[in-house]
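Hi Y.,

Following your request, here is the sequence exactly as I used it, all 232 residues.
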Amino acid sequence: MHLKTTDLTQTKQWLNDAQKQQVGGVIQASFANVNVKDYLAKYFDCTKPHQRKLRLYYDNDKLVGYCLLTFSDEINITVIRASAAFLPKFRQGGNTFAFSLSQSIKAWLTRPWRKHYYADTMLSPAMYRAIAKKTGVIWPHLTHQAPSQLFERFNSGGLLSQFNSLRCLVEVNRASKYLQQDLIAFKASEKLEIQYYCQVNPDFDKGIALFVIIPVNLAQIAKTLYKNLSRK
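Below is the corresponding structure, written out as tokens. Let me know if you'd prefer a different format.
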């Protein structure tokens, strides 16, 4: 399904009132137990990030989803955090991959002397699979050894997974609005990434998200290109 997109940059042109209201509608439709005003304030208005990039996705001029990236400088590193939501019909999983990857690489190329990490809290097994199957190196992953010290640093207030003993879970007090048959399908899936996600984070439907870290560097670019070219 081809969607039209509009890209916004916080330091150049940001959300107008109408767009912000539309984004709020997508958030309300996508998550259970969410206060839209608080969500917008935390992810779209907080002053901590020095930059934000936002892609809006439209179907026949109706906003059906968004992908937000925030860029924050911490000691010796830059952390790129993501937030995304789509109306149920448009949850294709791969919608955000190209945007997130390209913007993360651009940020790293601008200041390659700094370490860059992409960090996302994923409530959806499908979203995790869409990113994991295309990304060269992603943590946690069933075949990649995860650096526990990064999870302790970036997710210090998070929860330990009983499956991998990694601090890679986050209580976010909201959940994606899934139908019961969706949950059954996820837990019965034969797709390895979805199986792994459900093992690491069995309570994803109860407001627990998987905290994912992706390094952004030359090795990542090479491995991601190789992985995607090999799949074709």
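The mean pLDDT is 91.

Thanks again,
Q.
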